[in-house]
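In the previous lecture we treated proteins in isolation. Real proteins rarely work alone, and many bind small molecules. This record shows how such a complex is specified: first the sequence, then the SMILES for zinc ion.
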Amino acid sequence: MWRSLGFSVDWSLQYETISPAVRKISQELFLELVKQKKAYSKESPVLWCTECQTSIAQAELDTKDIDSTFNYIPFTVDGDIIEVATTRPELLYGCVCLFVNPEDKRYSKFIGKSARVPLYNYNIPIMTDKKVSLDKGTGAVMCATFGDSTDAEWTEEYSLPYRKIILPDGFIDKSVPFIGGMKTTAARKEIIRLLFEKGLLIKSESITHTVAVHERCGKEIEIIPSRQWYIDILFEKERFLKAADEINWYPEQMKNRYIAWVTNLKWDWCISRQRYFGIPFPVWYCKGCGKAVFADPDQLPVNPLETEYNGKCECGCREYVPESAVFDTWATSSITPQINERFGIPLVPMSMRAQAHEIIRTWTFYTIVRSLYHTGKLPWKDIMISGFVLAKKGEKISKSKSNSDFAPAKLIADNSADAMRYWAASARLGTDTFFSPDDLSASKRFITKLWNASKFAISHLQNIDLSKIPELLPIDKWIMARTDDAIIEATELLNEYEIGSARHEIDELFWKDFCDNYVEIVKERLYRPDIHGEEERKSGQYALYYALINIIKLYAVYVPHITEYIYQEFFRQYENKASIHLLLWEKPNGIDTELLEFGDALKSSIAEMRKYKSENKLSMRTQIEAMKIIAPEKLIPLFKKSEKDLLACSMAKSLIYVTLPEKDTRPL
Ligand SMILES: [Zn+2]
Ligand SMILES: [Zn+2]
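The predicted 3D structure, ligand included, written as tokens:
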């Protein structure tokens, strides 16, 4: 499909992330991070999906609004009661502490005392932390292992004990009274029922609140302790923030998303996943002392589940357990620059990364991290961030949904690759766009227009002599200057990756200047050298050739097939290159702005004439007495040299000049 879309790609350089070469690079670079002490493993609370039964990274979280209840439960302190509101009463047995805000006067007398956990009747400390919100719930919160990431932070910060409640499969641990062996949601209901029955439920409010879910399956995330591998990203946050300023972001505002993400990072990057498919960790653990041992570089790529470790551990033990986790896919996607350097050619920093906006927090960020860690350099100079194509508001086009009529292969077969490409270039950089197959009719209209205009022009260029530049008439000079002008504008926009705006610039030249005006004006001169003169015809041919070859060169990046066809049909014999895609764009040095002003005055005078005819229900071929030329004084000589053309295209018997003061070309 990529080939049929006309992508200019060197297919011999493709790679697969599961190929031995890439597995080797990925494992090598992991070992490099271990050596740098940037990669480490530890037993700690991790974000865990009980549905997929794997650890996940912060970047894989989504949020979802769910209906729930806020349950007010009484903890007792020396005969007093502290009410605590919680959405997760099933974690009551996991309670390790109550926290209040140090500023909260309501609770100052309780600080440092012990509170008794209702239903389970054991004591926990009452402590203060600024993170507790004064106005949410009752101002007293329970810290349970683990309700959320704050619980995990507090547990570490205040060295609180761990009480096991939820297991990796989403069931409650058997040891938990009343609810052991139940699923989380059933356990929640059961606890609420018990609290109510025992008069321990003060009230229960219905609420809608936002929870973190796994983006892959939509299931609510738990936090459970587990041994995982991490890449340290929190320690060098400042360095990653600084990197944002050293990369050119297109569009600029996407940088803010990156900065917001990095600023709010709370966890190191967990790179191990409890999945079957993926690149394995080149790691074994000593059965005797638990120490991790690593593969030798010449062993890579290695799968520790298939290959035994041969060395002897420091503790004397020779038996090992293989690591069964695999790398998170981003652990390998983040080293694309290094994978591309596999032929030994240094490429970093590469010139540009192209990607969509939803993976700034993963692909962009992780690639920057890895590049800085492995090379000390940024991965690329520029990053270009595109939007999504949506079926309608908020709905992605996907195979699973009914909008699969939008399958690219079918759209290409039905409409042509050029029509698809021309449409795709209409989106603004970084902005989501909607797609409906009807949108392609504009593309098809354009392609037909380009074909017809080219065919017409080429029919008048058959005996062109490009060996010498003829004496050029002002109108011909204008279309050439206007073409140069569009080339300069489009080049600047493309240098900023504004593909859509650049196309718009080329469209303006093609539709408004070339088709609607220039060709209409020059037509008769090309047909009738007997009236207009042979030299004048040559001037027209020269300009027509220049404008059209450059228009198709400009469009070649958008519609590579039709432009190549037009090129092969005619231009190839003069341009001496086998394909239009081997030609370079012109690099005009300077534009005669007076010619552009002349063109503007010319176009508005013609527009007035056409408006007059259509308002009076006259055909465009109707003869009129005179055509009014409205232009500043200095441009009048250019119009005078163009009289024959203007009379021919307006079917007027004479021209009337209305001069405007300088720099004022408004029509009267
Ligand atoms: Zn999941
Ligand atoms: Zn050992």
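Summary for your notes: The two ends are 54 Å apart (CA to CA). The chain has a mean pLDDT of 93.
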